[in-house]
Design goal:
Keywords: Heme, Iron, Membrane, Metal-binding, Transmembrane, Transmembrane helix. It comes from Natronogracilivirga saccharolytica. InterPro entries: Cyt_c-like_dom (IPR009056), Cyt_c-like_dom_sf (IPR036909), Cyt_c_oxidase_monohaem-su/FixO (IPR003468). This is Cbb3-type cytochrome c oxidase subunit II. The chain is mainly alpha-helical. The protein is 36% helix and 5% strand. It has a two-stranded antiparallel ribbon with strand order 1-2. It is elongated, with a radius of gyration of 23 Å. The chain is built from 5 helices and 2 strands. Helix 2 crosses helix 5 and helix 4 crosses helix 5.
């Protein structure tokens, strides 16, 4: 009878140690290294993610920086290699596999200014002359220069400006930019 109780205790102890090591311990280390978005509300980021999916950005951009030895992502300055913990709150899990455009896993760390993102969404060739990214003008309002006082339009290069008009981001453009800037994996698991 004593042998059965020792065996039962050993099975239970092994199970408890395994559960602690597989579920509780990783969560402790994951939570220490997580950097929360500081500029935007969860609603803005969630709506931006929805727009990111709706506009098909995932078809040309991935959100997974390859670690050293698996490509030149780190050497390009796209940030550290992605880790499983970077995606723990991402629903749906749409990491993308295409690399037609640059990886966006750390775009918030590389380009944290809203104006750059607005210009790149409105007219990508204003940022990079050879860009093959399509413009998304429906995310912007074109209004007369007198309309909506106090709001400055995009600071586009002269050849992309519309005389007498200013270009203002819509709420959808603001949400999408909030989502893009929130993509910052610079802090890893420590």
């Amino acid at each position: 009878m004593i042998r059965y109780s020792i065996l039962l205790f050993g099975i239970i102890a092994t199970f408890m140690i395994a559960m602690f090591g597989l579920t509780i311990l990783p969560k402790i280390f994951i939570d220490e290294g997580v950097k929360e978005p500081i500029y935007f509300t969860p609603f803005e980021v969630t709506e931006g993610h929805r727009i990111f999916v709706r506009e098909g950005c995932i078809y040309c951009h991935s959100k997974q920086t390859r670690p050293e030895g698996f490509g030149a992502d780190v050497e390009r300055g796209w940030g550290r290699g992605s880790e499983a913990t970077d995606y723990r709150n991402l629903l749906p899990h749409n990491l993308g596999t295409m690399r037609t455009g640059p990886d966006l896993a750390n775009i918030g760390a590389r380009q944290s200014g809203r104006e750059w993102h607005y210009i790149n969404l409105y007219q990508p060739r204003a940022i990079n002359e050879e860009s093959i990214m399509p413009p998304f003008p429906w995310l912007f309002d074109v209004v007369s220069e007198d309309a909506r006082p106090g709001r400055d339009g995009l600071n586009l290069p002269e050849r992309f400006r519309i005389p007498g008009k200013k270009i203002l981001p819509t709420d959808e453009a603001r949400y999408l930019v909030a989502y893009l800037i929130s993509l910052d994996q610079e802090t890893g698991v420590q």
